Amino acid sequence: MDRQQIFDYVKKKYGTMPEYLWARYPFYAVLRHQDNGKWYGIVMDVPKNKLGLQGTDVVDILDVKCDPVMIDVLRQSPGFLPGYHMNKVNWLSVLLNGMISDEQILDLLDLSFQMTAKKVKDLSSRPALAVQRML
Questions:
Q1: Mean pLDDT for the stretch of residues 49-63
Q2: Fewest CB within 10 angstroms: 76, 86, 90, 98, which?
Q3: Report field, pTM of the whole predicted structure over 0.70
Q4: Is residue 63 within 8 Å of 42, Cβ to Cβ?
């Protein structure tokens, strides 16, 4: 899967257009929620040696928010790395070089979207507060 396929997917599914925020990094594209402004992904082109890999050629990566336990498991497999320039406990970098299936990349992107979505408060677990708000 390449960056354009990701951009096409998020546009169709979430209405997201990539945002290019930094002049210094013209190919870094942020994916964010329209309602709360939170990032759920960022596509970057990064030299391999900055990712702890051999070589200096540039590769595309996708950073996604993920459950820490899932990150620990995925990082045992090739193609998954600590979140580049993000919190390494909650963010995961995915190499976009064909090592990871398109389906798995899209599943991780969907999970990241859900984890960063606007939270709906569940008032049923706090009945007194719910009653107060109705009055």
A1: 94
A2: 76
A3: yes
A4: yes
